[in-house]
TrEMBL record, chain A:
This is LUD domain-containing protein. It holds the Pfam family LUD_dom. The lineage of its organism: Bacteria, Pseudomonadati, Pseudomonadota, Alphaproteobacteria, Hyphomicrobiales. It comes from Methylobacterium gregans. InterPro entries: FTHF_cligase-like_sf, LUD_dom, NagB/RpiA_transferase-like. Residues 93-192 form the LUD domain. SUPFAM superfamilies: NagB/RpiA/CoA transferase-like.
UniProtKB/TrEMBL annotation, chain B:
Residues 1-12, 20-39 have a biased composition (Basic and acidic residues). One of its GO terms (biological process) is lactate metabolic process. It comes from the Bacteria. SUPFAM superfamilies: alpha-helical ferredoxin, NagB/RpiA/CoA transferase-like. It comes from Methylobacterium gregans. InterPro entries: 4Fe4S_Fe-S-bd (IPR017896), 4Fe4S_Fe_S_CS (IPR017900), FTHF_cligase-like_sf (IPR024185), Helical_ferredxn (IPR009051), LUD_dom (IPR003741), LutB/LldF (IPR004452), LutB_C (IPR024569), NagB/RpiA_transferase-like (IPR037171). This is Lactate utilization protein B. Keywords: 4Fe-4S, Electron transport, Iron, Iron-sulfur, Metal-binding, Repeat, Transport. Residues 356-377 form the 4Fe-4S ferredoxin-type domain. Residues 1-62 are annotated as: Disordered. GO terms for molecular function: 4 iron, 4 sulfur cluster binding; metal ion binding. The gene is lutB.
Length: 198, 522
């Protein structure tokens, strides 16, 4: 008997007694107020992320210093050119020298301050971790109230890779001292910028 | 300005270097102190003194682990014992705050429990659904009967690709399988990428906690390990310096690895998705950089639908860290273009446990570690004192399913205070299962003579609720008799230095009988 069949057979033999119906999950009232943008920003900051308001004539005014100080900028958004074409990257490891990556989030979650990306937004998935800093464009209209609402979105059943980022890479494995930039990005800044209308 | 703004000086760090002036780790954009991820809710004030790290339980083949002996050595290192206790209690308090912030917390626990129980009692169907969905997504699916099977399968995949190096994120399942040790013997280089797990790998120790693997080590211990293995400055014990050193030395392995492996927090049957929750982003690096990605999945990780993630994600990080979510929640569903993706579904005793009437619900566990953080025994003895993959309360009820003789004494390492059961986000009746294990092990003569004698006496009292209540009612004498059997005994050294709390004048039951029942009669 294959391992598969042996495991399934043992599971069937050992099925626990009793009735264990799948419960209906009720729609919970979001824990956040009506101002989703403010709630999102507050939660994101508690998770170590930053919020930057777009300037009047420069979307990236709030992160301009970081962008200007960067040698390699990889942009996956039309709002910024950058100097590393992600579509031309042969191997994921080649984006290790990226100082700042700029990507757009599919949506944000006010309850947690999270943003969602799939392989379509990232182009090279690894850039969201190998880059030193991550700048995220998020349309304020794309902020969902809570995690439950997020998991009703279709992306999770469609994308090969979908990931919620909530602030930067972090660790506190040594004596509980919080450190940003454990293995991934050292900072994550969200710029609240509406999507360009097509 | 105030001392508040100069935490480095206050902490008395030996070498206050490394941290850049604009470092944002300690304070957020709004200037408030941050405590997300595993961060403490207040600055650590661990004394700048060195003390040799107490090591874990002595392993002698199948002979029963002497947790008490290892706990005694842990307590004999007061700096370590105090720091460990404080650190994990802080996590527990953060968890309380997070849980209290959600009005539907109890409802979420009940839902999570029911979803898991439903899935486990239909596990065959959900595994088949998961397998079919994964295959349709282009994922290769393997089944492993036990740990050895898992290791052989992964080795086979690596050999097929000529892979010699593998980066991995933290996975308790691979610890269970002895994966690293096996691969060492096969000439495959395994690199742990989680900071805590990497510390443990470099020090040749098992993780002591499911969420914070090196919680039992001080920064001085880490400085010593890194100086010895990574060539860092032995006198620099700054956590930032140490973490940065690990990042810089691990990055080349990540870039050059032939394969990446992650564990699995949730496996969604509906979509064939593997979900991982990390703070460092190392699962995403393991899954997104190498050309070959492998996900090791315990078969009990299944949940039916994506929608159910909306329940589990809300309780996992809050229970584990006191944060609303981990920094990264990653959903791996299909391979990247030009790469291969493999799932290894591992049984390793789980299907057998499903048939154990008193213990099958331990399979609901989502490995948050809340029961460990709240356990006075765990906090005072350190995870390595259990000499098993799983420490703390959840370990007491899981470990004996792997080896009844070796872990026969572990169910006695509990005060039976029930706190583990109260914090469990999936409502496992942990302390009741601990007691049930004591009975089973006594019946099967797995318990040393001394403890068997205790069991007999304790069993006689505990098996009859009325007698139990009568004993409790006679408070002083009961505390002398009952807890010495059920709670403390000479082998449980973590009970030393602790005095029994004064017995309440009236037990709850007696109070209830006297007041509520009287009220009801009015």
């Amino acid at each position: 008997m294959s391992a598969r069949d042996a495991i399934l057979a043992e599971i069937r033999k050992n099925r626990p007694a009793g009735d264990h119906p799948l419960p209906e999950v009720p729609l919970f009232t979001p824990l956040v107020g009506d101002d989703l943008v403010a709630e999102f920003g507050e939660r994101l900051k508690r998770m170590g992320g930053r919020i930057a308001e777009p300037g009047a004539d420069d979307v990236f005014a709030g992160v301009r210093e970081r962008l200007d100080g960067a040698k390699v900028v990889a942009s996956a958004v039309p709002e910024l050119a950058g100097n590393r074409d992600l579509k031309a990257v042969a191997r994921p490891r080649d984006v290790d020298d990226v100082d700042v990556a700029v990507v757009r989030a599919v949506f944000g979650i006010a309850e947690t301050g999270s943003v969602l990306f799939t392989q379509d937004q990232l182009v090279v998935n690894a850039v969201a971790y190998l880059a030193q800093h991550l700048v995220v464009l998020l349309d304020p209209a794309d902020i969902l109230p809570n995690v439950q609402a997020a998991y009703r979105r279709p992306e999770f059943g469609q994308a090969a890779y979908a990931v919620l980022h909530t602030g930067p890479s972090a660790t506190a494995d040594i004596e509980g001292v919080l450190i940003h930039g454990a293995q991934g990005v050292r900072s994550l800044t969200v710029v609240l910028q509406p999507r360009a209308t097509a | 300005m105030s001392e508040e703004l100069h935490p480095r000086e206050r902490e008395g760090v030996v070498n206050p270097v490394v941290r850049a002036p604009d470092d944002e780790s300690e304070r957020g954009q709004d200037g408030r102190r941050l405590d997300h991820a595993e961060g403490t809710s207040k600055p650590i004030k661990a004394p700048a003194q060195r003390e040799p790290q107490p090591r874990g339980a002595k392993i002698r083949g199948d002979r029963p682990i002497d947790q008490g002996e290892a706990a005694e050595r842990f307590l004999a290192a007061p700096l370590h014992a105090a720091a460990h206790d404080e650190r994990l209690w802080d996590l527990r308090r953060k968890r309380d705050n997070a849980a209290h912030g959600i009005p539907e917390w109890e409802e979420l626990r009940e839902l999570a429990s029911q979803i898991k129980q439903h899935t486990l009692s239909n596990l065959d169907a959900y595994l088949e659904q998961f397998e079919a969905a994964a295959k349709a997504n282009g994922v290769h699916v393997h089944w492993a009967r036990d740990g050895a099977d898992h290791n052989r399968i992964v080795l086979g995949i690596l050999r097929d690709h000529g892979a010699k190096t593998l980066v991995k994120s933290k996975s308790m399942l691979t610890e269970e399988c002895g994966f690293r040790h096996f691969m060492e013997g096969e000439g495959v280089e395994i690199i742990e990428t989680d900071l805590g797990e990497r510390i443990q790998q470099l020090d040749n120790e098992e993780p002591s906690h499911v969420v914070v693997p090196a919680a039992h080590k001080t920064r001085f211990d880490v400085a010593e390990v890194f100086a010895r293995t990574l060539g860092t400055d032995p006198d620099n014990d700054d956590a930032h310096y140490l973490a940065e050193s690990q990042r810089e030395t691990t990055r080349p392995y990540i870039l050059n690895a032939d394969a990446g492996l992650t564990g699995c927090n949730f496996a969604v049957a509906e979509t064939g998705t593997v979900v991982t929750c990390t703070n460092e982003g190392n699962a995403d690096l393991s899954g997104n950089v190498p050309k070959l990605q492998i996900h090791s999945i315990g078969i009990e990780k299944l949940i039916p639908c994506v929608e159910h993630l909306g329940v589990f994600l809300r309780i996992l990080a809050r229970s584990a860290l006191g944060s609303p979510i981990t920094q990264y929640t990653s959903h791996f569903r299909g391979p990247r273009a030009g790469t291969e993706m493999h799932y290894v579904l591992v049984d390793n005793g789980r299907a057998a446990r499903l048939g154990m009437e008193a213990f099958w619900t331990s399979l609901k566990c989502i490995r948050c570690g809340a029961c460990m953080n709240t356990c006075p025994v765990y906090r005072r003895s350190g995870g390595l004192s259990y000499g098993a993959t799983y420490a703390g309360p959840i370990g007491l009820i899981i470990d004996p399913t792997f080896n009844k003789r070796k872990y026969s004494t572990l169910p006695f390492s509990s005060t039976m205070n029930g706190s583990c059961t109260n914090v469990c986000p999936v409502k496992i009746n942990i302390h009741e299962q601990i007691f049930a294990w004591r009975k089973v092990l006594a019946e099967e003569h797995q318990i040393p003579m001394l403890k068997q004698g205790m069991m007999k006496a304790a069993g006689a009292v505990l098996s009859r609720p009325a007698a139990y209540r009568a004993a409790i009612g006679a408070a002083d004498s009961a505390l002398k008799v009952l807890p010495r059997f059920a709670v403390y005994n000479p082998l449980n050294t973590w009970g030393k230095k602790r005095e029994m709390p004064d017995a309440p004048r009236q037990s709850f039951h007696a109070w209830y009988k006297e007041n509520r029942m009287k009220d009801g009669a009015k």
